[in-house]
Specification:
The complex is a heterodimer of chains A (156) and B (102). Helices cover 23% and strands 39% of the residues of chain A. Chain A has 156 residues and is of the alpha+beta class. Chain A is globular and about 40 Å long. Chain B has a single domain (4-100), classed as Immunoglobulin-like, CATH 2.60.40. The two termini of chain B are 24 Å apart. The chains are: A alpha+beta (156), B mainly beta (102).
Chain lengths: 156, 102
């Protein structure tokens, strides 16, 4: 009796956590136990990657993301990117390249003490768009920029 | 070659972290001279800390360039404080390094 009741609570709480994580869209948070969400990276189309990452969330176009990217990348294996979000309470910054074999490049999650800034070097398979998505207060914003790639950086 | 190089710079109460990590970041799509596929080998998770507090984390695929470079900024860093960076890759390897703010 007691045992089954305990199991019931366990299952109920487990289910509640599970469902709340689905509805919140982004499962990964810095408080969660470290884990690499392979489903995000398994998607081989940009559309599917967006769906897996953000579900049915509306992504609003914004000018409040500052994006430094070269217009032309001679070497797609090393494309420098600098992102500064001017959106209050930026929680995460996601970088995608819409024609890469794996469109999701990286997702950064920030603590409150972090400035919503990040710099990195990314690979681009071919001329395509770099899309940056910012999550802030359960809203999603994006900015996108085309980069011309002279030599692709994924197949090698 | 050291695994992780960290550089710190303080300005107006903000600490900028620059990190250079030694890692092949293989996609798994490339082939060697004999035409054999080079297995995927890339960092999956990165954690940046100020003392014992997490500043930022990252999940990534092989779309990050070879020998990854990252820069972050955070508030509240003081001389003597520690900044650390650690990573774990798809083959289970990991590394970490720390640096004291001057």
């Amino acid at each position: 009796m007691f045992k089954s009741r305990r199991n019931f609570f366990k299952k109920t709480i487990g289910a509640a956590i599970y469902f709340s994580s689905i509805t919140s869209g982004l499962f990964y948070s810095i408080s969660a136990k470290a884990g690499w969400p392979s489903a995000y990276f398994r998607q081989n189309s940009y559309k599917n990657a967006l769906k897996e990452l953000f579900g049915n969330q509306k992504l609003s176009k914004t000018e409040n993301i500052e994006l430094k990217l070269p217009k032309v990348a001679e070497n797609g294996a090393v494309v420098p990117i600098v992102i500064t979000s001017k959106i209050n309470n930026t929680e995460s910054i996601t970088i995608l390249a819409d024609k890469n074999p794996v469109p999701l490049i990286t997702q950064f999650t920030f603590a409150k003490t972090a400035e919503p800034y990040v710099s990195a070097r990314i690979k681009m398979a071919e001329t395509s768009h770099v899309v940056v998505v910012v999550k802030a207060e359960d809203k999603y914003f994006f900015k996108k920029r085309k980069v011309k790639v002279t030599i692709g950086g994924c197949g090698g | 070659m050291p695994g992780i190089k960290i550089r710190l710079k303080q300005q107006d109460g903000i600490t900028r972290i620059r990190a250079l990590i030694s890692h092949p970041m293989e996609t798994g799509y490339r082939k060697d001279e004999q035409g054999n596929k080079i297995p995927a080998h890339f960092i999956q998770e990165l954690i940046v800390k100020h003392n014992d507090n997490i500043i930022a984390t990252s999940i990534m695929g092989s779309g990050i360039s070879r020998h990854p470079y990252f820069a972050f900024k955070f508030k509240g860093g003081k001389p003597g404080d520690k900044v650390s960076i650690s990573w774990r890759d798809n083959l289970g390897f990991s590394d970490s390094a720390e640096k004291i703010i001057k």
